[in-house]
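Re: that backbone. Tokens:
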């Protein structure tokens, strides 16, 4: 198994223990987060639909509220407003899990988030006719709806191939769990060929979904969750095998994960499964070979045929052969 872990590291896959390598070889269900996992996590503002204010003012307020966040959506909003680092006062910044961020900007209470946040502050929001193009970020000022911004993400180049490779590797079920709205989730799931998806989820909803999937998987099989964000840490810890994206992933996700993909390519999951199965196969070969030789020498010794040198061969010789055979896992 040390050879298998070494072979995986050569491919940019960090496996934190031999037990996780064994669990990878038994994967039946793979559950994905969306943003930063199946998509690049590089967002760009594609549409701005203000309500009673100018486009520039809407972007201005949204960028200020997201000033201290490192979420990819927050970064894209700051990039869309070139003068975000101005002298405006931004105070009382509060992040609401599963909803968005609110802050006091120049004395105005500004909320930037999803429809749940709008409902929470009593803002009369409306759907965007082009919401399938990306994530819709709503903005409210002092409880009044101010408009929305559409932010688009792109699929990773190998996302679709990764799913087909997982199927070829023996994974029966692929699922996506996301906090994004239904239209975006449906588009991504259809594009990459996932078996099912669930949208509009809070972090605790993802945990509940994983608990359900764990209960549904066949006995003796394992479930993996693949994510990158700080909100994914509880799900990564709960899955049989937690897989984190090493480049874009948060420190919390990487710490909670059992396997880390250093280059953020979801296609590496199928590679990890292949290495895990090969390692298990070689380990079984070594076990059967070692026991078989020892039993054979023991039988020969019973009839007085085996000598001391044959006993040494059965012990040290078999160990050397097993080590040499294990080196195949490095390739």
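Recovered sequence:
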């Amino acid at each position: 198994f040390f050879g298998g872990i070494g072979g995986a590291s050569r491919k940019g896959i960090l496996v934190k223990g031999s037990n996780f390598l064994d669990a990878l070889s038994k994967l039946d269900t793979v559950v994905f987060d969306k943003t930063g996992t199946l998509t690049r996590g590089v967002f760009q503002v594609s549409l701005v639909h203000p309500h009673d204010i100018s486009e520039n003012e809407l972007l201005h307020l949204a960028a200020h509220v997201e000033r201290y966040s490192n979420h990819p959506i927050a970064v894209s909003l700051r990039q869309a407003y070139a003068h975000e680092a101005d002298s405006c006062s931004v105070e009382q910044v509060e992040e609401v899990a599963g909803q968005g961020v609110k802050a006091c900007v120049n004395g105005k209470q500004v909320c930037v988030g999803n429809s749940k946040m709008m409902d929470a502050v009593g803002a009369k929001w409306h759907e965007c006719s082009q919401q399938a193009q990306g994530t819709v970020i709503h903005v409210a000022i002092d409880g009044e709806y101010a408009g929305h911004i559409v932010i688009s993400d792109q699929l990773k180049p190998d996302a679709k191939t990764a799913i087909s490779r997982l199927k070829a590797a023996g994974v029966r079920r692929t699922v996506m769990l996301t906090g994004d709205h239904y239209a975006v989730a449906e588009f991504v799931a259809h594009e990459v060929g996932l078996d099912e998806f669930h949208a509009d989820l809070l972090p605790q909803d993802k945990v509940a979904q994983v608990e359900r999937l764990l209960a549904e998987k066949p006995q003796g099989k394992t479930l993996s969750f693949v994510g990158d964000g700080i909100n994914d840490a509880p799900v990564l810890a709960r899955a049989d095998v937690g897989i984190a994206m090493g480049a874009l992933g948060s420190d919390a996700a990487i710490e909670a994960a059992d396997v880390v993909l250093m280059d953020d390519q979801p296609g590496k999951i199928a590679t990890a499964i292949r290495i895990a199965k090969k390692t298990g196969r070689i380990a079984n070969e070594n076990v059967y070979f070692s026991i078989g030789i020892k039993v054979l020498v023991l039988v020969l010794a019973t009839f007085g045929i085996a000598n001391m040198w044959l006993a040494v061969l059965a012990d040290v010789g078999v160990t050397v052969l097993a080590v040499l055979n294990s080196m195949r896992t490095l390739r």
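The chain has a mean pLDDT of 84. The first strand starts at residue 13 and ends at 15.
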